[in-house]
Amino acid sequence: MLNNLKNYTFTSESVSEGHPDKICDQISDAIVDRFLQEEPESRVAIETTVTTDYVGILGETRGPDSITPDVMEELGRDVIKKIGYDQKGFSWKTARFDVRAHSQSVDIAQGVDAEGAGDQGIMFGYACKETDALMPAAIQYSHEILKSLAYARHSGELSLLGPDAKSQVSLVYENGMPVRAASVVVSTQHGESASQEDVREMVRPHIEKVLPNGWMCPEDELYVNPTGRFVIGGPVGDAGLTGRKIIVDTYGGAAPHGGGAFSGKDPTKVDRSAAYAARYLAKNIVAAGYADKCTLQVSYAIGVAKPISLFVNTHNTGTVSEEALANAINKVIDLSPRGIREHLKLNRPIYAQTAAYGHFGREPANDGSFSWEQTDLVEALQKELG
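Given the sequence above, the corresponding structure tokens read:
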């Protein structure tokens, strides 16, 4: 976590929807969505793993019997098809699936059914004024570069690019705010016929489009496919697993992370829902003008409804005391697991789209997704704090 430094260079990375770990996150969340679509009170904890021509799905569920292993396999194949994998060694048509899901533990279920948290844990939220989305700039731009490339690939504009890609943006900070890119790294899978220079020229406009005017890094600090070749990609080149990209999913290392992954979990799991609530609160505090940056921590015990602790840090940028902010939070939102789910309306099939390009800094949508990115708590905070 960055504290009182004023002048420094900071780096964050993102990975594309076709990265092996992100394939797994998307399959796991597609299964969560199907359970919640058919039964909003379903319990789901699904892990996915991928490697060459193989997808494994395992975990615990409690919900409609209609969601069989065959249905989970169908959902997985559909995710892989949408990403764009139909290549030798990994295709939505030919990959072998092994589904090993079973019923949720009754010991866990009794605590959750009593309105308690689904597990113990610590969750963090963060917001800052570096971007319009109130996100750290390096992770936000890393995501946007890959989203732009993916859109161009899906549209056919960049048909020579493959689904697997990574980005990394290093920003120079002066007086605590980002002012330009020191370097940018993009590695993207590509077809046999594309040279390294071809790929560089395909990628460059998408970096320039995302970075603010005048922020482009020096030419010798732009690294595109620095190994020289990236034809073999996806699960053929590397295995994947749900939940291995938690820093990509959150704040790119600019803020703490409690350690729990999000994807594959229904919202009774505070790893997911409380992390969303913490981001929601931090963002609303910054949006309301009470701080330029805010870190918030909340913790839980399994089977216990009330949070064990609530911590607010405004990094010496606050206009009111952190104690006052914590007191106001406890008045404007119920931070019990059910209170969070009801306030943010989380028992809906809204999670598949969170599983690539970050869970935060996204636009709230009409289907209720990214409700934790709304700033609709500003007025309530102002009423409590004056």
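Residues 20-38 form the longest helix (19 residues). Try to locate this feature in the token string yourself.
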